[in-house]
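Project channel, design review

CF: Before we commit to the Antiquaquibacter oligotrophicus constructs, I'd like one complete example in the thread so the newer folks can see what an input/output pair looks like. Taking XTP/dITP diphosphohydrolase.
RD: sounds good, go ahead.
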Amino acid sequence: MEQTHPQLENLIAVMHRLRAPGGCAWDRDQTHESLVQYLIEETYELVEAIEAGDRDDMVEELGDVLYQVLFHADIAEEEGRFTLEDVAEHMAQKMVGRHPHVFGDAIAETPDAVMASWDALKSVEKPGRTSVVDGIPQGMPALALADKLLGRAHKVGLLDATAPGAVGVTSEDELGPLLLAIVASAKANGLDSERALRTSLRELQAEIRAHETEAREG
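CF: and here is what came back for XTP/dITP diphosphohydrolase:
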């Protein structure tokens, strides 16, 4: 049978060869933990390529991220834990299950309706989560984490994320210099902007959890 994705199969074969006995000593020495730094670095490089809009850079950086997935799967297969096929099967099942409006009879005709359906299905899949902030990676960059938490606070009715803020900015061209000026002011005064924002975000998460508890008990 003709291969549907011959170049993908070739990349998988390259990975197997590099990590096989007699292959590359560095590749064989890697673990899931040792690869984390490279996964983070490659992800940031991909984001940069996407923002720049350069086709060749995107192809290269997407390849680097894809290679990290293959790398982790190959290590896990060698350890007898799971395979690349397991990863692909799980993701396909997850996407089909999370899109009943495409693969089933449900109706969701707007992005908001799709997200509401997604959240409802996720709550069924992960019943151990008692808060909308459960499952959010705390290691995210502080600004990205702030955006995520503000969205969750809006979702539970703690605040209106669509209301005009205390600082009136209407474009990223305005926002960027403003953020830079805030960081510059903090630095000039010996303050740590990242730590300050993370402290406020921990407080916001506590507020969200308290609001959820009050809503359940009320």
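RD: helpful, thanks. Residues 193-217 form the longest helix (25 residues).
CF: The chain has three domains: 6-82, 92-127, 139-161+171-218.
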